[in-house]
Request: fold
Amino acid sequence: MSYNSRLREARKNAGLTQTELGNMVGCAKTTITGYETGKSEPSMAMLSNIMHALNVDANFIFQDEVREHHESHATPSEMDSLVKPYRMLDKAGQKMVRTVIELEMARCKNAVPSLPEE
Reply:
């Protein structure tokens, strides 16, 4: 769900119309419509006002974007421990790593939960 959809969801959960929210934060209904449809983006100050009016925080609004970013970008720790060493390998070593990753991904995808060992 995009942050635009989260804004709409939060507004509806608060029981407000676009006009009412616009009046609370000092903008027109059409401006709120633009934010909710993604045709325009609020400034940080306006977004802060909207979140305050809707009683939600940035974690709620941006949770999906943060998750997507995390899934597609390495953390600094991952860069140091995984990406940098991978880049230091020759082509054969990189191919071996990719092969192991593919095998492990297939294993995890098809894995049946195992019983705990006694």
Observations:
- The first helix runs from residue 3 to 13.
- The mean pLDDT is 88.
- The CA atoms of residues 35 and 41 lie 5 Å apart.
- The radius of gyration is 22 Å.
